[in-house]
Write a structure and sequence with these properties.
Chains A, B, C, D, E, F: Keywords: Hydrolase, Manganese, Metal-binding. The structure is a homohexamer. By secondary structure, the first copy, chain A, is α/β, with parallel strands linked by helices. Chain A has helices at about 55-65, 75-80, 95-110, 125-140, 165-170, 195-200, 210-215, 215-225, 260-265, 290-310; strands at about 35-40, 70, 75, 85-90, 115-120, 140-145, 175-185, 205, 230-235, 275-280. Chain A contains ten helices and ten strands. The radius of gyration of chain A is 18 Å and the shape is globular. The interface between C and E is medium-sized, with 25 and 25 residues.
């Protein structure tokens, strides 16, 4: 298979052309590819301020800004790996369960070809059906979750499939290796006193004030030690970042991560066995002139660069 | 029962105080009331650009602008009728069917006391569960629908309960007197060639170009003749208005009604047996600095004034 | 005195340079000038949504768009009259009475040189102190008011000097010839049933529905007949326009004038003895990406063109 | 060749998938196609407020709203004609002349296959290089221009290739049949007294006040009579519409066309020999939450429907 | 008295219902309550960019996001203290002195029942009339002021009651214990060289560069030592935060506090005798899609949690 | 020459008056002045998202917020130096080379009088023609560039004069002392692997991660050692700041400088021989309610203060 090549932004201006993720070609077939970016334009499992269904398009548009070579890793992504924009998964805004099944099917198909996925949500609920697909091919995975909320509720408004429950569902279904789960950046008010209890008991939950006190270098070292050689999934809820960095999300929480700290976490995956990732909860209608979509596009670039440098090493 | 009184905007500035519809008192009990405004903050049955769940709050805020007396009808609404802000219906953003049941229950309770309702959506799907409640007390009702779309599809993405289907569902359930349905302002592109067929066969469908050609006076005269003495429900989808007047909606369609034309339709209800109404599909995230919420608040005032003047006559 | 010349937009792009009204030179001295544009950046007499204090700057910025020659009147404004940007009147956001005095003083000084004024508000309260100055030089004047509200209240929150009272105050002070006042476009809900009574008794109040019914040509003919040869002041509250045309104002009212209708009124002043004018209640923070400031700039151009063509005839 | 089919919005929600014009497939090869939509993301020939380079993407995104069947013409576009999204022309934001050459080359290639074009600008300057290509295949064409400005200046800031000059350049190059040019909606202030002279002498220039006075039905009848059987190009500058309908443009002018009037003009092309069209000067950064891109998408649908119904007849 | 309970956001979605502060019940009577949140929708004492009059409503709306339990203090606020939304104080936008009197009266009434207050401004001027009420019940209080400006001017535009003077007025009136005043985060350009002199002489003024150099832990320790056992009032001007965190304010100043640093200060009040607090100068019209209102809501939660944990200890 | 005095914001409110930089008088003649602020409203050399042509006006408007005295340097700028708003340079949006020539001519004229310049861009391309003028009077200068991009490309889309090439052009022309160039804050993805090579070979390029690791104090000390007694030019691309601090720019890059860090760099120029400066790439259409223009205005104040304190010492 030929190496897919992005549009060259030094020839075609970045505001031109049909928008795909990072100007990679649109290839709706994962055979022969190493990594695909997949849009999941679905936010019906969000319980409050919606809009994340519009994120894949907004991020595609602004990801044209991103260029091709990562200066710290010194890697040109599309040369190190075969990477493409897979397009969007089918969804029904009216039916969570059916959409989750469609998500699982599509991601299973992709992973069945040995291709890895970077999902662009959508709300955080989508991580559960993605993990169903990932675990089918990789077994129970380690998870690093950047987030202000643990998303380990049992139910919300009586529903089991929401953006507050994905890691509880994945846990119950045995998709996760609970010894190797790190939740980074947890903070903010709680519905009930015991909201964090389950996470504390089952996972390595790192509240944001711990990061403020210890510094990110130490925390990343802990993360790398915890994950070790396990296949690992990175789930980045954009509300893990501080609202100053990522205002465009349904439930921002003050006192969060800077973009630099989020980059440190992602760059900490060099050498780890990353098998999948997602960036979720970007909500263009909640945003300030799309700055959060721009930030998300650059974090997706950081993630893609890890896949590339890990392959290149 | 004492006559509920709104906050006096000549004493308390309009930007102050907890926001209720038109500054009427919040009374979550319909007994003794003539008309209540009810928020239905639900948009999960919208299939494209969401946000109408935020409309009741946005409209409450901007409805403070509205004053108390209607100069054309020469009626002070809260003196002619006992009217209040009932609050919002319970909803689950994850469950359309359950939410529709909650809507029906709450509206049944209200109508069971002889109180009439002005619903503030929410997406257009909510009209179906409201009509279930209205028809229970008033029998099959005449309907005047201001809209760019007929909303008489059978299903969308395989779902029967969506904002594209309320009048089909209501029709099937016998909640509507099909001989007395007028759809005003229909226009815009169609998914399939036969999209309008059902409406044309069953209802008096007035496409927008007919209104442009004949003028609104004639059309309103037709409407009054068609409805006659029947109990009638007015459903105003804000996308019936032209995008210049109401940009803040999920699916605006060019070539639509001016606010003046919408006012003409509403004022045409004087003397008719209006038993309920709604204003739906206002979407604050799609709006331009809340102008559509302001317009909607004033249309709600026009509707409330009709209830008042009809009672006062 | 040399004829002041605006910046030539065919030489210096319209987005460049320090922004003055229509790129006319800034001349803070009215001697020898025919007409000046004067900013009145004051909105403390607005009782609800403020922001009009920012209008003079926003309108200056966008008035660069306006060019120099009026094609219908066939007049190049700055050649027909000596016109300039006078700058802004001194104001204190904390003190209405004192600011009104400063306004009167500054406008008296300008009119004392035989120069006429186009004021750019600011809230509508400023028309009262301007009329104090205008009447001093021209005697009680005829007034044409384009507005959705009559602004003839006696007081608001116990205050006599507010944007709801200027024409009452001016009337009491004998600044207006009550037989020659026309209020155009009046509409919208009322605080109390008698809000319009005073206007109806004293003035020619033309409610908006009358304009919708009769058409603007007839109404303008009425206006010209009423004003005759009297010195006349034109006060244009931007909320006289429909919210679709002018969303950026504190209290928009649906069912209003189109920009074309407003232009018809202004062009109807050709041959009348126009001695002063204002455009008020543009509120940039309430606006949608400054479109109302753009509209206001073009209406100011229409007004300036009337001064020019009347002089040129 | 197989009939290209758009994404079915009743299967894939309209906010999902990579955005192409009206969800038609992206086919960068005109062979076998009847009509293509072509993006021209270029605004360097705009002299004031830029941003139109972002319009093709914004319009692609919002054109997902548009459905497939036109109810008035009763035609399903993609069944009547083979139509696709061709993608964007190559541009250099730094070089007007070179970009114009690229535009001409690309449009020549398309028309060389007998395929017609609907260009999505971009500023109005692009019409000149498009007409170079169109005239090569069709000879000098009739032109209907919907616009507030004539765009027949000779130069701007000393440059001959700008958005104020395309029809002058096309005229000089003999690309236009001057007897069959109609300019509709012209209005607004002029740089110099003679700005309209050239247009009046050479073309049928219909100022906006004439349309207000005579009504659009008469004007469209004139247009059809003037064009007759000639091959005709439709150039729709979005600022021909009133700012209430299309605020998102660099130089809006009050007193303009309603969307309904623009639709009347476009629908007036049924039976005419339409060989090309464009919609230009949509500027997302000047817009109010993308409403102008939505309006433009629907006008593009109207234009595409004319191609379809003309073929289908 | 029964313990007031907020709406349960796990039953009623957070976007639903009439908006009160943190969904606490609206109780306009302080008897039996420990703490009330009080809106003060007044910004006439702001001298530049206004809009803070709209903050109580915007913050009420977005405070629905906040949940009930504080994870660091491990306290459920509404169980530890009886807390409610008191509603808004009466104001007149036209009269600063009279409004200040109304504020003092209302806050005196509240404090007379032993209830403490968290005021939601409004501009910073309101702190003076609040302190008049607080000092009446608690004697001269210690003050911690988070702010970029000292607000200790003597007058502005000749007026003594403005948002630049509250602490000077309070000082003169003996409402403050000057030995126990700490001003945190002071920075930005000065009108005149001596602007800071008064503060430096009378208070412990901590400029922002000192915080950058020493770190917040040390500064908070200083603060706790300074305040000791005195009754203390916390006044948080949102412009104490960096513009990246709180863009929505009239006069943002670069180089300011992060939200995390503000949280550190607030959490430093555990064990202190907090008798009142305010959050002021949030200006929705100056904001970027309401992010500053969201931040303010979460800071109000932090303050309420201090009242709760101090009571609970 | 009399000392030019700014408008006193304690007399004339900051939202009033014709907007000039920091309310300094508009003096289009540099004779006798020490420093002028010069607008360069030009963005045609920007290759992606434009809008910087609107920055001089937006920054003028918001710079009214800035006061006159710098508390850290303890200097009142307009008393220490004669400083004014020079107005804008002539530009043609259609012609980069010609505009660059105009820029050079105008800046030469200014520097020929011994006056120094603070340019307000405009895109970064303008630094090259400014350096042509500066170097003519001061010889090859040292340069400190705060930026996320090195802007040392050789060409873009085949053009040599773009915002990606100014320092390459200046270098080739011998305008810069290459031993004394420091680039601060470089980061972000690269078009090609060697994008940074040239900078690394020729300049002291300090990538952002180095600043994160070493701290700004050390880096500023390096800078001062490198520059020494050389005449130095400061070029501040606003995208050197983190997107949280400066979202309003064409190509924001995550992980950047805080405003505090940018202030540290600028304050590090005390005692250095600063001969010119610019702030570029602020793009109001990309901004979030003008916060970046506010930030830029305050950074311009910091720069002006350095000129003042250096003169005053």
């Amino acid at each position: 298979m030929e190496q897919p090549r992005p549009v060259d932004s030094m020839v075609y201006p970045r505001h031109s052309g049909i928008a795909t993720f990072m100007r990679y070609p649109h290839i709706p077939d994962a055979r022969g590819l190493d990594v695909v970016l997949v849009g999941v334009p679905f936010d019906t499992s969000a319980g409050y301020r919606v809009g994340a269904r519009l994120a894949p398009r907004a991020i595609r548009h602004h990801s044209s800004q991103v260029r091709l070579h990562h200066p710290v890793h010194d890697v040109t992504i599309h040369e190190a790996i075969r990477i493409a924009d897979y397009g969007d998964v089918r969804t029904s805004p009216f039916d969570i369960a059916r959409t989750y099944d469609w998500i699982t099917e599509e991601f299973e198909r992709i992973h069945s070809f040995g291709c890895k996925t970077i999902a662009v949500g959508g709300d955080h609920g989508i991580t559960y059906p993605i993990l169903r697909a990932v675990a089918k091919h990789h077994g129970p995975v380690a998870v690093v979750q950047i987030d202000s909320h643990t998303d380990t509720h049992d139910a919300q408004f009586g529903s089991k499939l929401t953006h507050a429950t994905p890691f509880r569902r994945a846990h119950e279904a045995g998709l996760i290796d609970p010894k190797k789960v790190m939740q980074l950046g947890i903070r903010g008010s709680l519905f009930y006193p015991d909201d964090l209890k389950w996470s504390k008991e089952h996972y390595r939950m790192v509240p944001m004030h711990e990061i403020h006190r210890r510094g990110m270098d130490e925390v990343v070292a802990d993360m790398r030690a915890l994950i070790g050689a396990a296949p690992v999934y990175l789930s980045l809820d954009i509300d893990g970042l501080d609202p100053s960095c990522a205002p465009g999300t349904g439930v921002p929480e003050i006192g969060g991560l800077s973009t630099w700290q989020a980059m440190q976490v992602i760059q900490g995956f060099v050498g780890l066995r990353l098998v999948g990732a997602d960036v979720v909860e970007v909500s263009p209608p909640c945003d300030a002139n799309d700055i959060t979509s721009i930030v998300a596009a650059q974090l997706l670039f950081e993630i893609a660069a890890v896949f590339a440098v890990n392959k290149a090493r």
